[in-house]
Amino acid sequence: MLNFEARYNAKTAKAYYMTEQAATPVWFGKAAEMAGLEGEVSHKEFSRLVDGLHPTTGVKLTPRKTQVCLTDVTLSPVKSVAIAISLTGDRERLIEAVQNAALHALSLGEQHAAVQDASNGKKSHIVTTGNWLGVLHAHETTRPDPVTKQSDPGFHLHATLGNSSWNNDRQGWFALKSQYAWEQAPEMEKAFHAKLKENMHALGYKTRSARHNAGWELKGVTPGMIKKFSNRSTFLDRLGEGLSKKKKARLAARERLPKRPDLFVTGEQKERWMSRLTNSERKALSSLLNPTPPDWMVRMRQLRQVAWFKARQQNQESQPRERYIAYG
Length: 328
Fold this sequence. Notes:
Elements: E1 2-7, H1 10-17, E2 23-28, H2 30-34, H3 43-50, E3 70-75, H4 79-87, H5 91-110, E4 114-117, E5 125-128, E6 134-141, E7 153-162, E8 165-167, E9 172-174, E10 176-177, H6 179-182, H7 185-203, E11 207-209, E12 216-218, H8 223-228, H9 231-239, H10 245-254, H11 267-274, H12 279-286, H13 295-313, H14 321-325
Antiparallel strand pairs: 1-3, 2-6, 3-7, 4-5, 4-10, 6-7, 8-9, 11-12
Helix pairs in contact: 4-5, 5-7
């Protein structure tokens, strides 16, 4: 899923995006590069960005105050990947794979970043700048299910765009007009899921076809397992049966419970999630990855194979082959 949404409440934004994160928030976007911003984002820098100030100098970026403090682009991987992030030992690589796919999709939208220029007595017109100033945040859980009040594994990214873009023609910062990037959301979503699927294969995971927008899930995570960790979606589907897409969206907003810090992923929360699975499902989850061995392992295997062939040539068949070419 990929969704754009404007944010108007600076205080709420500061509290929500920088709390209980699954990974370190980082800068992204061409405007961030222009401003000399890279790597980890501090609370102070993000707070300034929300207030329309330069994150490091504190200088006001846009001449006029605007109502929008941020634009939030939410990117959610398929559910099986979210489950794998929270419940397997391959967390770091999987998070990096999702972030990489997200940045790929965001770069497509950034090409359409624009500002409105009404300078030098000219008629107001739109200028495509092709840059924005963004922070990538990672959150790991869904909002609580209205019935159980419990969250499910639901890793997702929030790409928050500061309300400023660099106008190269005028050599200054102007208020970002992100609606032109919004129009590219369907293509950005396709690119995100396609790149993520490619990344999963590169990591050694296998995928299967699925009947939803992304079109795939990780092989080994069954529809039954996904349903066990989709309680809020199941609740909303049941409650909104027969409603239009627009009315379902309103229903979801009305039934949205706030996230709570105690529902962030802990060892205890992970144990509760694992308790929902049968023994066979736990085994399937632990066997998801068919890893691409690191270079040192490849070399070790090659040496063992050479040793086996030498032993064979010397008629030392008494040595079992498995001893030389065993995995790891």
